[in-house]
Amino acid sequence: MDSSFQVTERSCGFREFRAAVLDYAKQVRDAGVTLGQEAQMARQLIAYDLQNSLSQLMSEVKALREIFMCRFLWKRWEDFDTSLCSIAMPAMLNGAVAWMVLAGSTLCLVVLHYKIWRHLLDNKGVGEELEHFAKKYGYLSTST
Fold first, then answer.
1. Mean pLDDT on 29-34
2. How far apart are CA 132 and CA 130, in angstroms?
3. 107: pLDDT strictly greater than 90
4. Cβ(4)–Cβ(10) below 8 Å
5. From CA 26, how far away is CA 32, in angstroms rounded?
6. Three-class SS state of 12
7. Are 77 and 68 in contact (CB under 8 A)?
8. DSSP labels for 71-128?
9. What is the largest CA-CA distance in the chain?
10. Is residue 41 within 8 Å of residue 35, measured between CB atoms?
11. Sign (positive/negative) of CA torsion 23, 29, 32, 33?
C-alpha cells in the first residue's frame, strides 16, 4: 500500500511473505511502545493541568464557604437547601412515580380494550361467515 492508500498486488514466495508479516508485526510493536511512552507523558501533563485548574476552583469554593459562614446569607442558604432537598424533591419524585403508575395503568387498559374489540370483531366475522354458509348449504336452519 502506498501513501495514497492504493494497493498494488505483487506475487511473492512463502519466505518473502513471512518476512513481510514479521516486519509488519515489528512495526506494530514499535508503534505500540511509542504510543505507550507518549501516553505516559500526556498523562503527566493532564494530571498537572487538572490539579492546577481544580485547585483554583476549590479555592473559590472555600472562599464562598467562608463568606457564607460568617454572614447572614448562610442561614438563608441552609433554609433554601433544606426546602429544596427535603421538601420539594421528594414531592416531585412522588409525583413522577404517580404519573408512571398512571401511564402503566392506562397502557394496560388500552391493551385490554384492544383485545376485547378484536375478539368481538372476530366473532362478528365468524357469525357472518356462519350465516353465509348456513344459507348456502342449508344447515343450521330451524325449519325442517
1. 92
2. 5
3. yes
4. no
5. 10
6. coil
7. yes
8. STHHHHHHHHHHIIIIIIHHHHHHHHHHHHHHHHHHHHHHHHHHHHHHHHHHHHHHHH
9. 105
10. no
11. negative
Cα–Cα distance measured from residue 46 to residue 52, given in angstroms and rounded to the nearest whole number: 10
Is the four-CA dihedral 7, 10, 14, 19 of positive or negative sign?
Answer: negative
C-alpha–C-alpha distance, residues 131 and 125, integer Å: 10
Cα–Cα distance measured from residue 130 to residue 141, given in angstroms and rounded to the nearest whole number: 11
DSSP 3: T
Q: Report helix, strand or coil for 16.
A: helix
Please say whether the beta carbons of 88 and 95 come within 8 A: no
Distances (CA, A) of 114 to 90, 109, 111, 120, 141: 36, 8, 5, 10, 33
More confident residue, 43 or 133: 43
Q: What would the pLDDT profile of 57-90 be if each residue is shown by its tens digit?
A: 888 878 877 777 656 666 777 888 888 888 888 8
Retrieve residue 124's grid coordinates: 362478528
Q: In the 8-state DSSP scheme, what is residue 38?
A: H
